[in-house]
Design a protein that fits this description.
heterodimer, A: alpha/beta, Rossmann fold, nine-stranded mixed beta sheet, two-stranded antiparallel ribbon, 7 helices, B: alpha+beta, Butyryl-Coa Dehydrogenase, subunit A, domain 1, Butyryl-CoA Dehydrogenase, subunit A, domain 3, 10 strands, globular
């Protein structure tokens, strides 16, 4: 069985992201694997452990995205491939989906493609679904657990606000996972040694037989949310009971409750 | 000269950092208040391979180098000193001692389960009446038949009640002209009859760690558990300290970093005189000095780690690294408390824990005074490191992986 996991390199989740004049910057904060994708890697590795499958991590990005791929290798993925091309600068989700689908086809005989639910930078949350659409594969979203996997089908449990749903589908399929899937494992030292010596191949659009896919989404405006105005007021009273009563009156007056 | 960490070092450092921040940071304040080590800490460190990080794979380790050990110590102590202490005693003082001085049979039998994290190791040198003055050790090991009968009590032993193995230094020759030559080293399995032990509480710092005493009363151990030759105990203990001190130096560097990060954060948040306190020059001075000591401490320990990798004798450089980093971490923690003002004096912020924790390392594994004397001794030509019968093996990326 062949499993692909698609990952993205994003700024550290603790980075202070500043939008200025339409440009987004995160200072000197480090780049790391998109935290949601760590769950996707974990999901892929869990299935690989159970099925003796081979996991290939793929990423679209610049040379630095190899660091995120190395993290996936250190966690236990067997292979990693970077897809990099200057023509992909400012590519939107559907353009990336076309590229990922082409890469999955080039890898060949892939049974499952795992995605994180969204990336913390663009926050679109559609790349997995769009890739499934390009591939013509079924798409399972918000997957919290893989209940069963055979050579030709998968049963998953999807989790959303209203409840849970068990879904069966035929393989090959795209699976986008939520963080309920399992806590991502740490890289092992053995994996770290392997990753640090790995030479990650880079595929260009030419290697995938693709022309530069045009982006259809543009961002005419990018801005930080307005700063919140917070005022502090001390609630006083003679006794604890009186303070509590005054606090309740305040809360009711402000219509918080 | 290349100051860049390798990919392997960077990933290992990141892994240890993630573990410490994700699993220990959220509970450390409670553990410190309750003066207990969380039960999962040692098994988890073993499971993740951290307890065998720099040991060869054939001895159950992970096959990384001595620099990786230092980087792991820096990351662990950036969260809490008690974590780094585990590596100091288990890896630095005990396992690396076995790697250096043990026979092949001892490495397979005793070192391997330690590197795999299946057996926890500690180091029994200090006694209630013998600290800096190692030659004053009273514990005895008397030859009986094919083995030795051990008697005596060790004090201030990290992991005393958690460990399975103790590298124990005792006097085998009370008549030796130089009392240093009358000492020998043994690996004592702590489940042997006659071993008793207990925890010590009410310490100033490292309260989330385990510190205690171990007593041996007529404990019989086979000759196969003697490490090195009879009379080599002092040399073995000193080479164990060369490795333990390295981990302490790297850890104290992490503590300086923790003080710096907490201070920078607070200096941005706290306002006084109409602006954030980070704009005040006297606060800036404290922060600048922390930056200076962090960088210097880091360079000191990385040099010592590099020398270990190369198989170069590093007693002087390791001593310098340990002396500088621990003194600097105490100063950094004190200034971090000062920057935090009254809040720094309460355990609402972690800096008071950093201050309490930092004091221990200025005392153990050679007090600052001992290191000062050592450095003066080297400079004045009064002290030289003689070659040892067994040197710590240089890191070999090929044989370490076999």
């Amino acid at each position: 069985m062949k499993i692909v996991v698609a990952i993205k390199q994003t700024p550290d989740s603790a980075a202070k992201v500043v939008a200025d004049g339409g440009q987004v910057a995160w200072g000197d904060a480090p780049l790391e694997m998109n935290p949601w994708d760590e769950f996707a890697v974990e999901a892929a590795l869990l299935q690989a452990d159970a099925q003796e499958a081979e996991v290939t991590a793929i990423s679209v990005g610049g040379e630095s995205a190899k660091e995120a791929l190395k993290t996936a290798l250190a966690m236990g993925a067997q292979q990693a491939i970077l897809i990099s091309d200057p023509a992909l600068a400012n590519a939107d989700s559907q353009a990336i989906a076309k590229v990922l689908a082409a890469a999955i086809r080039k890898i060949g005989e892939v049974d499952l493609a795992f995605f994180g639910r969204q990336a913390i930078d663009g926050d679109m949350g559609v790349t997995g679904a769009m890739t499934a659409r390009v591939l013509g594969w079924p798409m399972l979203g918000l997957v919290a657990a893989v209940q069963a996997l055979s050579t030709d089908s998968i049963r998953v449990e999807c989790s959303f606000e209203e409840g849970r749903q068990v879904v069966d589908c035929k393989l090959p399929a795209v699976v986008s996972v939520s963080k309920d899937i399992s806590e991502p494992r740490y890289p092992s030292f053995m994996g770290i040694r392997k990753a640090s010596r790995a030479v990650i191949p880079t595929w260009s659009l030419g290697d995938l037989g693709l022309a530069a896919p045009a982006s259809v989404v543009v961002w005419p405006q990018v801005a930080n949310p307005p700063a919140r105005q917070v005022t502090t007021e001390m609630v006083s009273g003679g006794t604890a009971k009186e303070i509590a009563e005054n606090l309740v009156d305040k809360i009711l007056a402000e219509k918080v409750l | 000269m290349d100051f860049t960490l390798t990919e392997e070092h960077r990933l290992a450092q990141q892994m240890v950092r993630e573990f410490a921040e994700r699993e220990i940071a959220p509970i450390i304040q409670d553990c410190d208040r309750q003066q207990r080590m969380a039960d999962f800490v040692l098994p988890r460190l073993g499971e993740l391979g951290i307890l065998g990080i720099c040991l060869p794979i054939r001895y159950g380790g992970q096959g990384l180098d001595y620099l990786a050990l230092g980087l792991a110590c820096e990351e662990l102590e950036a969260v809490d000193t008690s974590l780094r202490v585990v590596l100091s005693v288990h890896v630095g003082l005990n396992s690396l001692g076995l790697l250096q001085w043990g026979t092949e049979e001892q490495k397979q039998r005793l070192l391997k389960p330690q590197a795999e994290g299946k057996k926890i190791a500690c180091f029994g040198l200090t006694e209630s009446g013998a600290g800096s003055d190692v030659a004053a050790i009273q514990s005895t090991a008397r030859r009986v038949g094919d083995g030795y009968l051990l008697n005596g009590e060790k004090m201030w032993i990290s992991l005393a009640t958690r460990a399975d193995h103790c590298l124990w230094v005792a006097r085998t020759d009370p008549q030796a002209a130089d009392p240093h030559d009358g000492l020998s080293a043994f690996l004592v399995e702590l489940d042997r009859p006659g071993v008793s032990r207990g925890d010590l509480h009410h310490k100033l710092g490292v309260r989330a760690g385990s510190t205690g005493w171990i007593a041996c009363q007529d404990v019989l151990i086979p000759e196969a558990n003697r490490i090195g030759l009879e009379g080599e105990g002092f040399k073995i203990a000193m080479s164990c300290l060369d490795n333990g001190r390295y981990t302490v130096a790297a850890g104290a560097t992490g503590l300086i970093r923790a003080c710096l990060e907490a201070s920078v954060k607070y200096a941005h948040e706290r306002k006084a005189f109409g602006r954030e306190i980070g704009k005040l020059q006297l606060v800036q001075q404290k922060i600048a000095l922390m930056v200076q000591s962090y960088d210097a401490a880091r360079l000191f320990y990385l040099r010592a780690g590099w020398m270990k990798n190369e198989g170069l004798r590093n007693t002087r450089e390791t001593s310098l690294a340990k002396w500088f980093a621990t003194d600097a971490s105490f100063e950094a923690a004190s200034q971090a408390v000062q920057i935090h003002g009254a809040y720094g004096y309460s355990d609402e912020y972690p800096v008071e824990r950093y201050l309490r924790n930092s004091k221990g390392a200025v005392i153990y594994e050679g007090t600052s005074e001992i290191h000062m004397l050592m450095q003066a001794g080297y400079a004045l030509g009064l002290r030289q490191d003689a070659a040892l019968r067994c040197e710590l093996p240089a890191y070999d990326p090929k044989t370490w992986q076999e």
